[in-house]
Amino acid sequence: MNYTFIEQQEKMFIGMKFAGPFHVLPVEMPKLWKEFLSRVAEIPHAIEGVYYDISDEDFTHHIHTEYIAVEVERFETIPYGMLAFTIPARRFLTVTHQGPMSKVPDTYTQLFGWMKENGYELDLSTFRIERYDHRFLSSVDDPAREENAYEIMIPIK
After folding, report:
1. Sequence-ordered list of residues with C-beta below 8 angstroms from that of 136, at least 6 positions apart, any chain
2. Which residues are in the AraC effector-binding domain (predicted)?
3. What are phi and psi of 106, to 5 degrees?
4. Which listed residue, 2, 51, 85, 96, has the most CB atoms within 10 A of its CB?
């Protein structure tokens, strides 16, 4: 795996969210993706062709919040049932996950192992981001597709 550090500029997003315990994500996230993709055309000023899964973990209350979103050029009208938010500029460690969705936990295990071995620490005060572009076919459509690829962006201290 190739690990890269990037300085990400501030970004604005509009999307939908799900919050609940981690163990329900495999059931609930495909539903959220399906609903979001059916409504993404409602979002004004969207930057097309790239989708984001943005995660926030509350370890105290064991709640995992996932936002499925698109980056937007500006906030104007927020479609019903969606929300708008901004992620400030910050430094991320990035890696590309390649392969079926069933292998995502292995990618994260390798990533966090590399971070520990190299003295990097996850910043729990902010979001983890997954960036999906043309290389990825939504897990709603084909979660076992070997050619799937997307960027994992981990905030580091």
Report:
1. 148, 149, 150
2. 1-157
3. -65, -40
4. 51
Number of domains in the chain: 1
Contacts of range 35-38, beta carbons closer than 8 Å, 24 or more positions apart = 36/68, 36/69, 37/138, 37/140
- Domain of residue 74 covers 4-155
Judged on CB neighbours under 10 Å (0-12, 13-18, 19+), 127 is: buried
Residue with tokens 């590309």, as numbered in its chain:
96
Beta bridge partners of 85: 13
Dist. CA 88–CA 126, nearest whole Å: 9
* CATH code of the domain containing 133: 3.20.80.10
Pairing of strands 63-72, 149-155: unpaired
**CA-CA distance, 32 to 18, in Å (whole number)?**
7
Selected residue with higher pLDDT from 105 and 75: 75
Is 67 within 8 Å of 131 (Cβ atoms)? no
Rounded distance between C-alpha atoms, residue 101 and residue 138, angstroms: 10
pLDDT (tens digit, 9 = 90+) per residue, 125-135? 889 999 988 77
Could you read off the pLDDT of 68-78 as tens digits, one per residue? 999 999 999 99
